[in-house]
Amino acid sequence: MKYARPWLVTAAAVALFAGVAAPEAWAVRLDETAIYIELNDTDGDAGVQIFLDGEDWDTMEIFDPRGRRVMGVAATGNVGVQGITEFFIESSEPSFEDQPLAEFLELFPPGVYFFRGRTTEGAGLFGGARLTHKIPAAPEIVSPEEEGTLEIGDAAIEWELVPNPSGSRIKSYEIIVEREEPTLRVFRADMGNRQTSVTVPSEFLQRGRTYKVEVIAIEKSGNRTISETEFEVE
Description:
Elements: H1 11-15, E1 28-29, E2 32-40, E3 45-53, E4 57-63, E5 69-74, H2 77-82, E6 87-90, H3 101-107, E7 111-119, E8 124-131, E9 141-143, E10 148-150, E11 156-159, E12 170-179, E13 185-192, E14 197-199, E15 210-219, E16 224-233
């Protein structure tokens, strides 16, 4: 899924992280960092997503608020020579039957996650992003009904507003409509936090085809919850 762009933590916050050296020990700050939870209410699973962007680098480590390393990346070979700038990963998403949400959240505690790495020129890189456990409720899709039908020219995706999570707020909604056969086509729309509908362009739709809809509620730190349904075009 498309990454969000939550605010970067301040250099002072990074300096206090887990007793590591102050940012002055590194030369370059990452341009962007993000870590957030994606929960699929329809499928009953959750995962974590991490994004960073910065000057060309060949090594990167990420530490959780307890100072434990979450992951490490080392670029070798030609990629190591060329360097990496943008980097995005999604964790696996086992079902809640195999990994209850509470167990997943224990693996990724809330707080500031610290990023540190090295540029291809040997300079130090640093950054940080805050993860919260403020996860939105699942959007209720009003239209289309599950396995319902929509007409070309009147294909409106509608949903109910999601209440703000305690201590946070819903920032936006993202709507994704996919047709997998005969070739993949994707319609995507970013909507404001007070909007409850979007019309799918008629030129995107084809009669007799089945489409999957995702309505995604996104709270201000980037955490998101997905509801899914399908419809057929008449």
